[in-house]
Amino acid sequence: MTFNQIMTDLRAKRYKPIYLLEGEEPYYIDLITDYIIKNVLTEAEKSFNLTLLYGKDVDIATVDNIARRFPMMCKYQVVIVKEAQNLKKIEDIGYYAQKPLDSTILVFSHKHKTVDKRKKFIKDIEKNGVYFESKKLYENQVPDWIYNYLKDCKREIDPIATKMLTDFLGTELGKIANELDKLIISIQENKKITPQIIEENIGISKDYNNFELNIALTNKDILKANRIIDYFGKNQKENNIIVTITSLFYFFVKVLAAHCVASNDPKTVAAEIKVNPYFVKDYITATKKYNKTKTIEIISILREYDLKSKGVDNVSAEASSLLKELIYKILH
Question: Quick check: helix, strand or coil at residue 157?
Answer without folding.
Answer: strand
